[in-house]
Amino acid sequence: VSQNPVAVYSGHVCVAKHTKCDYVGEQLLPVSGWGTTFIIPPLSFQPKFDLVYVAASQYTHIDYQSGRVRSTKDLVAGQVVTFEIKFPSPLYISANAGIQVIFFCTGGSKGKIMYDPFFLMIPDVSGYCQTYNIHGQDLFENYAIITAK
């Protein structure tokens, strides 16, 4: 809680799950920007698994499904739960109060291609739009993940 606007970041200076040590970081959303319905797609090139962190600011009931597995959890204020996500099963989450959802790509390799870990804020489906611009980076293999409501 702050009397003036602040930005809050989360990250790690040396995360090493499926790769060598690397830095990850992401700016967190203010609680007022949290959502209640999320679709988290897995990365098609991840042969192992990635992680999804879900944070609650108050007592929150969540329903979630990955593949055919469907379940619920009750979270208390300040609690963070972790889910593994693996291709080809997306993770669907709905909550009765706002939650913050962060995707953690654990890095790895597929064939001769090595990729670094990263954090990514997952938007609530209410924030989806109909038009996007996608720009690739020269001399890199670029991917776009398109998620439909």
UniProtKB/TrEMBL annotation:
<protein>
    <recommendedName>
        <fullName>IgGFc-binding protein N-terminal domain-containing protein</fullName>
    </recommendedName>
</protein>
<dbReference type="InterPro" id="IPR035234">
    <property type="entry name" value="IgGFc-bd_N"/>
</dbReference>
<dbReference type="Pfam" id="PF17517">
    <property type="entry name" value="IgGFc_binding"/>
</dbReference>
<feature type="domain" description="IgGFc-binding protein N-terminal">
    <location>
        <begin position="1"/>
        <end position="148"/>
    </location>
</feature>
